[in-house]
Amino acid sequence: MGHQASFHAPGGADFLGWRKRGAATEIIYDDGVARRMIWRVAGQASEARLSDALSHAVGALRVVPALYDEMKKRAIAIERITG
How far apart are CA 29 and CA 44, in angstroms? Predict the structure, then answer.
């Protein structure tokens, strides 16, 4: 069984979360309407750093660009796998 954490935008529509599947960590974004994207974390990132980055990004007006910025600030490499 994997671990996970999720965050919703203050308005309630946008969702960001992370989950562990075996050794891989994935980040999920869903806009609540039609857009769902998944990224795989390349390398190691602590749960605290991931949660901090996602909680900051989900509060932004444009969540996906904010997610990329927050990952870059924390030197967490991600690769998009769907969406």
Answer: 20
| Cβ neighbourhood burial of 5 (10 Å; 0-12, 13-18, 19+) | middle
Residue showing tokens 């974004």: 29
pTM of the model: 0.86
Read off the pLDDT of residues 14-36 as tens digits, 9 standing for 90 and up: 899 999 888 899 999 998 888 89
Give the whole-angstrom CA distance, residue 14 versus residue 81.
Answer: 19
Q: Which helix (H) or strand (E) holds 16?
A: strand 15-21
Tokens of 59: 């509060």
- Domain coordinates in residue numbering, the chain: 4-82
**Is 64 within 8 Å of 31 (Cβ atoms)?**
no
